[in-house]
Amino acid sequence: EAGVAQSPRYKIIEKRQSVAFWCNPISGHATLYWYQQILGQGPKLLIQFQNNGVVDDSQLPKDRFSAERLKGVDSTLKIQPAKLEDSAVYLCASSPGLGPYEQYFGPGTRLTVT
Amino acid sequence: AQSVTQLGSHVSVSEGALVLLRCNYSSSVPPYLFWYVQYPNQGLQLLLKYTTGATLVKGINGFEAEFKKSETSFHLTKPSAHMSDAAEYFCAVSIDNQGGKLIFGQGTELSVKP
User: Fold this and answer.
1) Confidence (pLDDT) at B97
2) Do the chains contact at A95 and B100, CB–CB below 8 Å?
3) pLDDT mean for each 10 residues of chain B (114 residues)
4) In this structure, how many other beta carbons lie within 10 angstroms of the beta carbon of residue B41?
5) Average pLDDT estimate for A63-67
6) Is A106 on the interface with B (CB under 8 A)?
7) CB distance B102–A45 less than 8 Å?
8) Which of the residues A92, A103, A104, A109 would you substitute to probe the B interface, choosing the one with the greatest number of B C-beta atoms within 10 Å?
9) Are the beta carbons of A72 and A55 closer than 8 angstroms?
10) Measured between beta carbons, which residues in chain A are less than 8 angstroms from residue B51?
11) Which residues, 6+ apart, have CB-to-CB distance to A33 below 8 Å?
12) Are B110 and B85 in contact (CB under 8 A)?
């Protein structure tokens, strides 16, 4: 069974530029999560999808971050414009559904904003 | 609101020694509790989880954790550390009515000395 795929693995941009991250979850997983992991901290949920609908985006800085999962499969997270404090690892995870299921994490995208 | 506190950002043990990583949580409703491990440049992998039932939970790689409601704790233990256990460990809590999102502690880096 293929795991959660993310790309790119690494990205360096200058502040005020835009960037996009892509995630392909495990086949059949209805729930998809985007987490932000700042160095030295635990991951923090940015947004959660159930199929193509948003379940929770309360922690997403909506003035600069956006995410979509149009066909209920893969997802894109965008930052525009980026700030220095956005430097972090962006983790995508998926699970079979809502509830206390195991979440399967991708390798993450390490973003550096200079 | 739910929260997780991991005592000790760095723990160092000798190979063969007991591993004890501490986790305390705060929740007004019965929580689901998880331990994840993160190796360098990789995503998170589930070690074990507590949902209901037996309070002593066994996971992969010889790890186990005990849910103690009276102490609001979910400490992770392993009787004998191995060099391959060196990694970052995260405790997380999930609440049933919040769609499965995880709230993570800040992490504990485990070092294993030969």
Assistant:
1) 67
2) yes
3) 92 98 90 93 91 91 95 96 97 80 95 96
4) 11
5) 97
6) yes
7) yes
8) A103
9) no
10) 100
11) A45, A47, A48, A49, A92, A93, A94, A95, A103, B101, B102
12) yes
Which amino acid does the sequence have at B99? G
Q: Give CA separation, B79 vs B20, B35, B85, B109, in Å.
A: 9, 17, 12, 18
pLDDT at res. B96: 66
SS3 content of chain A, % helix, strand, coil (to 5): 5, 50, 50
Those residues whose C-beta lies under 8 Å from the C-beta of residue B114, and which sit 6 or more positions away, are: B14, B15, B83
User: A55: which chain B residues are within 8 Å (Cβ-Cβ)?
Assistant: 99
Residue type at A72 in one-letter notation: G
Nearest CB neighbour to A42, from listed B94, B96, B105: B105
pLDDT at B80: 97
